[in-house]
Every structure is written in C-alpha cells, then in structure tokens.
Design a protein that fits this description.
Length: 580
C-alpha cells in the first residue's frame, strides 16, 4: 500500500468523525433548549399577584367571574376571554369546568392572579378538544379572579360612619336622597352620583330600586355612610344593565352610600322648642305679622340661607300663604324671644323641583328660628300702668307734658333713653310731635305715674322704621314715667284770657295811636298780658311763633297792619274760621 494512499484514507475518516460529533453536539444542545414537557401528577399553581385584602375566597359551589388566557407549555395561546371582551362565568365544583380548573380555582380571592398548570388527565386527556387542544396536552391558564358569589348570599352591609344622633331611620315607603359610588367587586367604577353632582332620589322598599338596594338602604340614618354589597340575583342578574354594558351579567355590585335626606309622604312638620322665654303673654296666631331670624339648612346640615348674613330679620304675615306651607304652620303658637327648630318635608316646602342651586328637589328643610317680634294689624297700644297714690290731674290732648322713657324692641334690643341725656322728653299731646301710639299711651296719665307701652308698628314707625335705629315693622316697648304736666288750652286756641277782656283792647295795643297795630305792638302787648297773668299762651310751643300766627290771622288784608275794622276776638269769629 502506498503510504500516501494510507495517509489520505485516514484523513477522510477523521473528517467524517468530526462532522458526526458536531451534529451530535447540536442535537444535544437543541434538546436541552426545548425539553419535552414533563409529566404532571396534579395541578400546579403559581401565584403571580395577591391583593392586600382578601375578604372572600372561592369555595366549591360559588359562582365566579374571571378572565383567563389559555396557553400550552411553550407559550402558544389557544384561548382567551379577553379576546371575547367578556369574563368567563361559571359555578365552581359542579363539573362545569375541566376537573383541574374546578380544583384550582378554590381558594382564590377577588383581584388575585394565578398561573394554573393542569395535567392532561385533569384537562382534556387523550381525546383533546377539537382542533385547538391536541390529546395529552398540558394546559396553562393565566387567571384573574374578578367576582365571587353564592346563591345563598344575602345583602351585605358594612357601616363605616354613623352620626352621633340618629332620631330616625329609613323605613319602607320613605323617600330618600343619597349619594353613591357604584363599583364591581374588583373595584371597577360603573356609576357615581357624585360625578353628576346630583343626589339619587327615590322611594325605598316599594320596587323603585333593584332588590338588594331596597334592602340595603333600610335602617340608615341621615349622615350615615355604609357599603352595600349585592349578589347579582339581587342586582341586575343574568343580563347586567343591558345596552349600557357598564354592569356585566352575573356581576356582584358594591355601593358606597351616604344618606343625605329622608322623609315620608305622610310626614308633617316637626317642631322642637330650643329656648322659651320666662314670660309669654301672647302666642302667634293666623294673620299676625312676624319678624324673625333664621338659619336654613338641609337635613344633612348643608347650609342654604340665613337672615343673619343679611343682618335683617325676615318679615312676613303668617298663616296667609306668604311663606311655604310648612313655615306657615311652624310659626304658629310661638312666643316673642322663642327659639325653635322647624323640620319641613318637601311636600310642605319646595317640592320635587326645589329652588335651583341652593335647595335641591325633594329636600327636607331645617329652619332654626328666633322670634324677634310679632303683632296683628288690629292691635292697639297695650298699656300697663303703676299709678301713685294721689293721681287726680290726668293728661289730655293739648297738655304740655314732660316724661322720661326707656325704649326697646320686643326682644329687648335697646333703642334709646332720656336718662342717657339727663333730661325729659317734652311734647304737646295731640300736636303730632310723637308717634300716634305714644300720644295714645300718654293720655290719661298723672304726674308720677309709670306706664309700659307696647306699640304696634302701624302706630309707630311703620314698615320703613327709622334708618339705623328702628327696623321696619318693629313693635316698640316704652317704659314711661310722667314727670311734669302743664294744662293745655281748649282745642283750637293758642291764647286765652285768664280774666275778662278789656273793652279798649285795640286802643291799648295801639301804643302810638296811629289807628293801626303793627307786629311789634301786638307782640309786646300779648307778652305783657302773659307776664301779668292776664292771659296764657298754649304751652309747649315757641311763644313768638304763636304770636306771629295770631297776628297773621288778624291781618285780614295781609298789608302788615291791623286796623280796628280787622280786629276781632276768637269768640266773635264765624264758626268756619279757625284762628291759631
């Protein structure tokens, strides 16, 4: 053999051996990277996400809603609920699922996510499933649990805030106003009254709501906050909310509710006296005119109006339809100074429409009122008197009186006092120098007498009042003491003779004997008669003004002089002429 041939043959053998070894190494590497699935004896669960809270875990017999992705061990997807945009809804433990899934889902919580690996003997076995799942396939399911409920479930209520005072709770046939957030069991928001900025208003317990809500709202207090969880058969059931599709079929519902208002169509107003005066001589009746302050709020305490903020009372007739019906009722039978709370159902207030932004429709209203005063248009001056032992000379029209007073409103608010200035108030009765009610109240008094006068506004300062001092339509209270009395002249007279009139009256006045009396001669003569006690001027008036008026009346032709032909005594005047 040729050496070279031997050498050539050995070289080719070594090349073939090297190629075979490379191919063997590649096959080993390929098998190591893609190993065949290992056989499983049972399900395998990998928990990929566990929520912080787990209020309920799946039990056999529960109904569940979940999303899933079905894959083979190599990651190839064969099915997904996400692709159908709907959860998979099924009872667990009733053989409605493959055995491995029936077993694997037990113990899951809402919002928990598991990777579940199921061997073929607990899946579709040797037969597989159609064209999608070959025989003897190990199946992987990426599962997200969204809902759990049971046919034995009832409405679940969890109260997380309750007001300290709860005088009334929701009963069947009550009408309520409440805010809510509605979510699915996994927390997905499907509706909220807060986003609409309007309460949900409805009757309770008579079928206006889904059955679970009808149950879950019973027993609530105004201001209470509770979470109401409903199984679907007490919610929207198999069909969900239909075309809206916000609530899927067979979904548990969670409502976070705060109750704002509560009444019954049969309700009347409720009145709670908060403060009563020690003395109440009179209570309000239909037809009275009242001045009162108020704070108005909704039943949950939301403020909507106040007379205090305007710094002015609310003034109105009561029982005549000038105010809402409930207030008309609530203001009857009150005392001046009383404070009371009046709760008015909407059918006696602003009804289903409300007033717009401040008072919503069907709202119960709460008024805290303080009665400042009231009167009736038929009222006269009310007089309470304390007389001295000797009380013989009584005041009458035309008398000049001096008196002290303290003046207040009916609620005690100070108006004024003569004591502040240390001098009396001096008036002529019947001359219009004080309000009508005061003139009436001062008639018939004697010096030293004390009176309390309650004067209704139509005999005082009326609807307008006195700016900055006396409110409009205010009843006034005067504590009066008569200090001095000067008897007035007969009505119609501003000057009278205390004795017989001299027959030479004109000539006595005519000092310069020019057959006429000028203003100075007239004034000097009258003042001299008063000084000597022969005559009297009407008290309480400016003497010079009285004399000027007397002179003007005597000067018939208005030439500034009085002749003897013009001069007449009042007793000689015709009845139609009234000399001042």
């Amino acid at each position: 053999a040729h050496p070279s041939g031997q050498n050539s043959h050995s070289k080719h053998s070594m090349i073939r051996l090297t190629v075979q070894m490379i191919l063997l190494a590649f096959l080993v590497t390929f098998v190591a990277c893609n190993p065949p699935p290992l056989p499983l004896d049972d399900i395998v669960i990998e928990k990929t996400f566990t929520p912080d809270r787990c209020d309920r875990m799946v039990k056999s017999g529960d109904f569940v809603r979940y999303h899933y992705i079905g894959m083979f061990p190599d990651g190839k997807k064969f099915d997904s609920s996400y692709d159908r945009s709907t959860t998979y809804n099924v009872f667990v433990g009733r053989k409605q699922l493959i055995a491995g899934m029936d077993k694997a889902l037990v113990g899951m919580c809402v919002n928990e996510r598991w990777m579940i690996k199921i061997p073929p003997q607990l899946a579709y076995g040797k037969d597989g499933y159609g064209d999608n799942i070959p025989p003897d396939s190990i199946l992987h399911f990426d599962v997200l649990m969204l809902d759990i409920w049971n046919t034995e479930d009832k409405v679940q209520i969890k109260t997380y805030h309750k007001p300290e005072s709860c005088g009334r709770t929701v009963q069947v046939s009550d009408y309520i106003r409440y805010h809510y957030n509605g979510t699915l069991l996994d927390g997905t928001l499907f509706d909220s009254s807060h986003t609409r900025m309007r309460t949900y208003d409805t009757y309770v317990g008579i079928g206006w709501l889904i059955a679970g809500m009808d149950q879950g709202l019973l027993g609530m207090c105004v201001g209470e906050k509770r979470i109401i969880t409903l199984p679907p058969f007490l919610g929207y059931g198999e069909n969900g909310d239909g075309e809206r599709s916000d609530i899927p079929a067979q979904a548990s519902l969670v409502f976070d509710v705060v109750l704002l208002d509560l009444h019954n169509p049969k309700d009347e107003i409720t009145v709670e006296a908060q403060s009563l005066p020690d003395h109440c001589p009179r209570k309000s009746v239909v037809g009275d005119f009242m001045r009162y302050h108020y704070n108005g709020s909704l039943l949950d305490g939301t403020f909507f109006d106040s007379s205090y903020s305007r710094n002015r009372t609310y003034d109105t007739y009561i029982g005549k339809g000038y105010v809402i019906a409930g207030m008309d009722q609530g203001l009857l039978g009150v005392c001046v100074g009383e404070r009371r709370r009046i709760v008015i159902p909407p059918h006696l207030a602003y009804g289903e429409e409300g007033t717009g932004t401040k008072i919503p429709g069907s709202a119960v209203l709460v008024f805290d009122v303080h009665i400042i005063d009231f009167h009736n248009p038929s009222d006269t001056v009310e007089i309470t008197s304390v007389k001295p032992e000797n009380c013989s000379n009584n005041t009458k029209r035309g008398d000049f009186v001096k008196y002290h007073y303290n003046a207040t409103l009916m609620d005690g608010t100070y108006i004024g006092s003569t004591h502040t200035f240390g001098k009396t108030y001096d008036v002529v009765l019947g001359a219009g120098q004080v309000v009508i009610g005061m003139e009436q109240g001062l008639i018939g008094m004697c010096v030293g007498e004390k009176r309390k006068l309650v004067i209704p506004p139509h005999l005082a300062y009326g609807e307008r009042g006195v700016d900055g001092e006396v409110p409009g339509s205010a009843v006034l209270v005067f504590d009066v003491e008569l200090v001095d009395l000067e008897e007035g002249l007969p009505e119609g007279y501003m000057f009278v003779w205390n004795s017989d009139v001299t027959p030479n009256l004109f000539s006595e006045m005519d000092k310069n004997k020019d057959a006429q009396v000028d203003a100075t001669e007239f004034s000097d003569y009258i003042l001299q008669q008063v000084k000597e006690g022969k005559g009297r001027l009407a008290p309480g008036f400016d003497p010079q003004r009285i004399i000027e008026n007397m002179y003007d009346n005597q000067d018939r032709n208005k030439d500034g002089r009085i002749t003897e032909d013009e001069f007449k005594l009042k007793a000689d005047e015709a009845a139609a002429h009234d000399e001042l």
